[in-house]
Amino acid sequence: MKYLFIFCTLFLVFSSCNEVKDKNGVILRVSLDEQETSIMEIFKRIDIVPLETTDSCLLIWPDKALYVDSCFMIFDSKNPALFCFDKNGKFIRKIGRKGSGPEEYVDVYDAIYDDDNGCISFLSPFGELFSYIPDGKFVGRKRLPQKVNYQSLEETHGLYVTWTLPVSDKDFGISLISKDSLQCVKEDWQGNRNLASLYPKCFYKYGDEISFFRSFDKNVYKVSKEKMSILYRWDFGKDNYDMEDFGISMKTAKGEAEFSLLIDKLRNGTIPYLFSSQKQTDKYYYAQLIFGFNPHNTYHIFYRKLDGKSYFFKRTVEGLNLNPIYSNNEFMLCLAYKNDLEKCRKILQIEDCAKLDKMCEDDNPCLIKCYY
């Protein structure tokens, strides 16, 4: 019994050695040496949901999803609106419309579900929120504090949290805005504006907590009305880098030419990778890295909280390239087209293979519902 206790203690110590806690949050140690990873190592099962394809719901560039009342709401950044599908992928309605009318917008960059008000809110880059109830009825529009180029939106109890592109290094990127007064109650995050514009969807929500990340920063931060703190930090060992190594400050910009220099260094691989997306569930920390500034060179990290085991891969061994657009504690939603799914028929259920047989190559993508 004594030896069993010692063995169990040592097992727990060594199995969690990749996760270290310090005063600046949790450190997640991950190797960026690619591993052969089956999708079934991360998820218990996957279902596919083919999305109906008609002229009314043709998706161009879907890059985000909401899940409201068992309805999949797909945000298309090239045709800015929410396209709503039922649990079987049948098109229900479109929410939001471009135009110049009182219930229309010129453009919107982001969309959220507002838990406090039970409505969908779209963020206009010009500093307005356009709100609709989930059945598509327009509720109203709200004017946000004057800022340049609103990009990203989240919400928590009584607050909107927004990201705007800073004009100067002294401008704040994060604004916490009261839902009641629509006044800014706190601003945060200053830094080199040349590093601020890439991949502007920089928030994710886990429970009631809003997290913030940037493309060239290994830290992930907790957003709050108090002091912003580090929640966790990625440690890639020999593959870590600092922007200062390339003559670029995280705090201060060096003029317009620096942005062109940044893009060149990304394309030629001098700066090897950047963060394009991050999420968190009860089971995993997730990060998406893009190498060579090429969206076709996207890699995924799943870091398991239970034991610190990490998975780093571009495609699964089944040939599937994940494209996550939503995640909660039950499942992750990914997009895939017919050609991608043909490669992994052997892990699909019989009924999902039948769905795949009915699809055409130019149909809307499928949703892959990956259950944890």
Automatic annotation (TrEMBL):
Pfam families per UniProt: DUF5128
Descriptive protein name: 6-bladed beta-propeller
Biological source species: Bacteroides oleiciplenus
